[in-house]
Amino acid sequence: MLQTKTRPLLPVFFLLALGIYLSSFAVSVAAAAWVSIGLAVLWLYLEYRGSGSARCLFWLLVVLAGFFLAVTDRGYLPDCDDPLALTGRVLDVRELSRNQRVIVYVPEFKSRLALHLPAGTPLNPGDWLWFSGVLQKPERARNPGEFDYRDYLRSQSIYAVMEPAEFQVLDKKAWFTCLLASLQDYVRSNCCRHMRNPGLAAALILGDRNALGKEQQDLWEKLGITHLLAVSGTHIGLLAAILWFGCRPVPVSRRLKAIVISLILLLYVLLSGGKPSAWRAWLAAVIVMGRAGHLDGLHVWSLAGVIMLTANPGYLWQIGFQLSFAASGGIILWSPAIRKLTARFAHGIAGRLLGKTCTSIAVSLIAQLSLIPLLLKHFGQIALLAPIATMMLLPFVAVLVGGGIFLGLCGSLAAPLGRLLDIVTETACRLCAVLAKADCLITAPSMPSLWAFAWYLAFTGLGGIARKQYLRLGRPTWCRWANLALAVLLIVSMPYHCSRPLEITFLDVGQGDCILIRTPFRQHILIDGGGDSVYWQQRGRNVGLTTVVPYLRHRGIDHLDLVILSHPHEDHLYGLLAVLEHVSIGMAADSGQPHDTPTYRRYLELIEEKQIPYISLAAGDRLVLRGGVQLTVLHPRRFLTGTSSDLNNNSLVINLRYQGRNVLLTGDLDLEGMEVLLGRGDLFPVDLVKVPHHGSRAALFPEFYQAIQPQYAVISVGGNSFGHPHPEVLAYLEQAGISASCTDQEGAVSFYIWNGLCGRYSRPR
Q1: Is the dihedral angle over the CA atoms 548, 552, 553, 555 positive or is it negative?
Q2: What is the pLDDT of residues 181-215, one digit of tens each?
Q3: 3-state SS string over 508-521?
Q4: What is the pTM of this model?
Q5: String of b and e for 406-425 (b: at least 16 CB within 10 Å)?
Q6: Is 469 helix (H, G, I), strand (E, B) or coil?
Q7: In this structure, which CATH number among 3.40.50.150, 3.90.480.10, 1.20.1260.10, 2.40.50.140 belongs to the domain 84-173?
Q8: CA 658 vs CA 433, 507, 528, 626: distances in Å
Q9: In the list 188, 250, 661, 695, which could disulfide-bond 729, CB 3.0-4.6 Å?
Q10: Residue 577: what pLDDT?
């Protein structure tokens, strides 16, 4: 079956993955179960009758099988708010910034939980723990580009968290987990004892990136070679080759050798943490060793994927699984074309050497091309030197893996080997430092889903063509290619104002404001940056570093043309400090109203240190951007005094106008400021308004909304003790027929102006 050219497991792999992906959407499990039963009965009937439509039903059932695999993977977690007393086995312990995350397996629910315990709690994998508390769902990312804790835990098949009110370590241990942990410590201690710089070797053989220093990790990420640190085909293949060569003189059957080597490789996979890339490589090695003769690579690849997803559907969400299968699948798909390239070189020492060099570069290049959409999605950057750096560092990795495993297991018996590995490590680090000076790192936003699909469609299509022995290009073929090229040229050559919308995104920064304006001509204006205060925000949180800057990087924005501060309250200003420190700024602007706080003083210091041009804005000022985008300041004309809050009532009020549409941004304007604005007659109908002062009751002024007549409204708000947004404000907006969105309920909210239309078409995910 594995040698067949039809490759039936290929569609099974992809359809199974599709079913697991669909399980993330809100679907009635009971309804899906009844539909599945009905389709299964129908499929059996059609198969019995020999109908050709039975095959289509079978593929649909494979999708449903993936769906139910993912649903049942969640175990039997109860949906209740009552405290529970449970017992679980510790699988992993990791120190976080404020606490300690402990992953436990609870036999009662056949599920994993993430416990947040006080930092420094003495726990090790294999311990048993009694704990009690309330189960909660993990937090979701509120903004694109922000760390999504729920997705991260889901990739490890964890669907609930708990902060135990009580816990106790039991006098009971899981012997196999403890044995693996002891063996890991033994290998790590041997490397540390006999090497001056064991970090790289320990990271390579145990898959523990924490063994590397922060600078080394950043260096490898900059070069795009962190995949070499993951225990994968390189490690498993090298170890399997060494073991197979060592077993050749042993007078036993080939099958027994394969079984012994498979068990040793399995132990190594478990020892290295059991990452998806390691499991994929182990499964492929077992399949290849268990079969004689030539095997179809794509079939083995898809069989390994089916086995892994069946055993653990959560693998689909792990970055390591996605990167490992994308890279290995691309290499296998294009391998015939790479072999054709190698065969063109002349026979001889020089020709073979040149051929192997070109093959190594081609393999690294194909792997990089297969990863581009994933790299942009997860990391937002591409290292152009990755193929060359991979080829140059691969020999060092092979020596460190083979020598590191031998040194880790033999200890003092192989002590002289430690000095050689130190030399190899030092040489590899110097080579990385030299390559990093080229600084060939491209930062870009993640691909839209349709573009990523088109990328992989073209990549696999061209790979399939390249696998053929020859390619016929007749007149019809050339005509089709010419028509396709003309269609692409027509789409690409469309004017920016037709092909790209203007986007206004209201980020969820908690109790505060942060608005990003992105024009069709890729100009970027940031209004406010959110902020933190011990009165309403999580203590110690820096929203600029955790939300605003990651969002800008997610969108591929490394330069802001203009940063505007509406007024210098903490919930609008504090997050801007991180933006000023980490992002290039073209110009900074505010109303010029001073405020004697450490945050405002630091804001002015950063503007001076970074030599950012600075202007003060007042009513009547107008900024005209490319493509006809206009920002007009409506308030304040002069500073108001003696109001309920002078800082709020002197907020900059800005009208954004583009293609005949208007968006009114009001800062924290209160009643007095709105009365002044209305009295001057500067208000006019708009399409979208940012509700003043987070929906405060003090900002409820019906005449204001009657003058601007908005269709949409956005309330930027978070958890607070002020009662924002006030129920009367929400009731008035609903009564007036204004469609209101709140960031505390919906997360980041985006509106678009495109070809004269204004609306909320999608979220910026």
Answers
A1: positive
A2: 888 888 888 888 888 888 888 888 887 777 777 77
A3: CCCCCCCEEEECCC
A4: 0.77
A5: bbbeeeeebeebbeebbebb
A6: coil
A7: 2.40.50.140
A8: 48, 21, 21, 11
A9: 695
A10: 92
Exposure of 537 by Cβ count < 10 A (0-12 exposed, 13-18 middle, 19+ buried)? buried
**Cβ density class 106-115: b for 16+ within 10 Å, e for less:** beebebbbbb
**Structure-token pair, residue 675:** 């009365």
Of the candidates 223, 230, 224, the residue with the CA atom closest to the CA atom of residue 206: 230
H/E stretch holding 443 reads strand 441-443
For residue 53, give the amino acid letter. S
Give the per-residue pLDDT at 475: 55
Task: Name the CA dihedral angle for 225, 231, 234, 235, rounded to a multiple of 10 degrees.
Answer: 130
Beta-bridge partner residues of 588: 563, 614
Token duo for residue 201: 């070797």
Cβ count near 524 (within 10 Å): 20
The position carrying tokens 């970055």 is 319
pLDDT for residue 1: 46
The CA-atom distances, in angstroms, between 245 and each of 10, 269, 403 are 32, 20, 16
Specify the DSSP class assigned to residue 467: T
pLDDT at site 110: 85
Question: Which residue has 């239309």 as its token pair?
Answer: 757
Residue 474's pLDDT is 52
Whether 745 and 140 have beta carbons less than 8 Å apart is answered as: no
**Would you kindly state where each structural domain of the chain is located, as residue ranges?**
9-72, 84-173, 182-316+384-442, 318-383+443-471, 498-759
pLDDT for 763 equals: 47
Cα angle vertex 211, ends 278, 214, to 5°? 115
Bridging pattern class, strands 688-690 and 661-665: parallel
* Secondary structure (3-state) at 457: helix
CATH tag for 498-759 (out of 3.60.15.10, 3.40.50.11030, 3.40.50.2300, 1.10.760.10): 3.60.15.10
- Give the chain's residues under pLDDT 50: 1-2, 292, 471, 473, 534-539, 763-765
